[in-house]
């Protein structure tokens, strides 16, 4: 049965792309969009209640970051993100435990989203990103200290939600999420340390390991928490974690492609922002390791201070050195691995469909 749905799904899937032309994703993305909307509807009230419990100074920053308030505290109908991670928690719980497990896992889903946004607040400060979700980042509005402290508070809220949850799986979920936060911090440390090193010193293997820690770990944790709340066997929880990690790497690969070639009107970030910051993203490191003349040109450009007039030349160098093609092939490979892990954990095609739809959605996005 496992091989059946897995083979069938492979046959209907086309190679992964970034959809930078705005074209449709698999099954036009409708199933994933419906899952995300339903997840947001049940998780948002839990998030709002948690954030409303914060002291005023940190609450104001958090509400702005989530898009629910303007800087002056007036209500906003902003975009609070896609809620992919909480959707993974709820969908994994439902896949192995049915609707009851999904309902029981709402707090865990909110906790994962709080941790995700803790990382975003901190990353924006460290990376000096000035735009997120089509508006100024929190640190540019409130300053570094307030943005950092608000992020710290979101992480604490996440762990408090699980500590106060009477569900039998909450304690194990809290430990797992805490370990994930440590892994996220290690991944972010590796990322920032790489930025201080010469381009030729950074290897593709360590960049992939960093990406798994920074991105794959939380998606894997989200899926695993869903399994825990469903009462799944340890081997199924492990397979769900591996599924999320592999899908997370595919996600990061495509995110890095979008960071270079994405449409700013859809990404909410300036064109070529990663290249301007001289980030050693996966397509860039792959291009630098290609040994081509374009790789040598890219290394020279990365050694020099950023000049706006060199942006187009840098983009072309990454592409000519094979960085874009490599990232897209790798993303497809990681998705294939993710599907294998999903088939181990959830052999029933109908039950696995929601998780598969979410995984394909995040690797076929345009922003």
From TrEMBL:
Example GO BP: isoprenoid biosynthetic process
Top-level taxon: Bacteria
Keyword annotations from UniProtKB, A to Z: Magnesium, Metal-binding, Transferase
The keyword Secreted is annotated on this UniProt entry: no
Cited InterPro entries: Isoprenoid_synthase_dom_sf, Polyprenyl_synt, Polyprenyl_synt_CS
Pfam families according to UniProt: polyprenyl_synt (PF00348)
Region called Disordered, residue ranges: 1-30
GO molecular function: metal ion binding; prenyltransferase activity
Gene3D superfamilies recorded: Farnesyl Diphosphate Synthase
Any coiled-coil regions, as ranges: none
Family: Belongs to the FPP/GGPP synthase family.
Protein's name in the database: Polyprenyl synthetase
Organism: Streptomyces dysideae
Lineage: Bacteria, Bacillati, Actinomycetota, Actinomycetes, Kitasatosporales
């Amino acid at each position: 049965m496992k091989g059946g749905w897995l083979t069938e799904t492979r046959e209907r899937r086309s190679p992964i792309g970034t959809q930078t032309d705005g074209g449709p994703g698999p099954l036009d993305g409708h199933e994933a969009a419906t899952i995300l909307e339903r997840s947001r509807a049940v998780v948002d009230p839990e998030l709002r209640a948690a954030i409303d419990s914060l002291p005023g100074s940190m609450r104001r920053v958090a509400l702005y970051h989530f898009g629910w308030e303007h800087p002056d505290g007036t209500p906003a109908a902003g975009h609070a993100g896609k809620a992919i991670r909480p959707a993974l928690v709820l969908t994994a719980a439902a896949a192995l435990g049915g609707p009851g497990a999904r309902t029981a896992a709402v707090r865990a889903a909110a906790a994962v989203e709080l941790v995700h946004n803790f990382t975003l607040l901190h990353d924006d400060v460290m990376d000096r990103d000035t735009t997120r979700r089509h508006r100024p980042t929190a640190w540019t509005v409130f300053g570094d200290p307030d943005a950092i402290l608000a992020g710290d508070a979101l992480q604490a809220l996440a762990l408090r939600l699980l500590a106060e949850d009477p569900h039998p799986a909450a304690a194990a979920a809290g430990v797992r999420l805490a370990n994930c936060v440590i892994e996220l911090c290690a991944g972010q440390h590796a990322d920032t340390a790489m930025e201080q090193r010469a381009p030729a010193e950074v290897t593709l293997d360590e960049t992939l390991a960093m990406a798994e820690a920074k991105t794959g770990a939380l998606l894997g944790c989200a899926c695993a928490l869903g399994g825990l709340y469903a009462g799944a066997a340890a081997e199924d929880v492990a397979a769900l974690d591996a599924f999320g990690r592999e899908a997370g790497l595919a996600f990061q690969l495509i995110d890095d492609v979008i960071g270079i070639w994405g449409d700013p009107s859809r990404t909410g970030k300036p064109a070529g922002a990663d290249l301007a910051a001289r980030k050693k993203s996966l397509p860039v490191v792959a291009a630098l390791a290609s040994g081509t003349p374009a790789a040598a040109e890219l290394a020279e450009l990365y050694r020099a201070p950023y000049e706006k007039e060199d942006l187009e030349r840098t983009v072309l160098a990454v592409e000519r050195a094979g960085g874009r093609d490599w990232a897209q092939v790798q993303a497809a490979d990681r998705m294939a691995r993710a599907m294998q892990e999903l088939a181990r954990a959830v052999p029933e095609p109908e039950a696995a469909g929601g998780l598969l739809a979410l995984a394909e959605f995040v690797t076929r996005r345009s922003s």
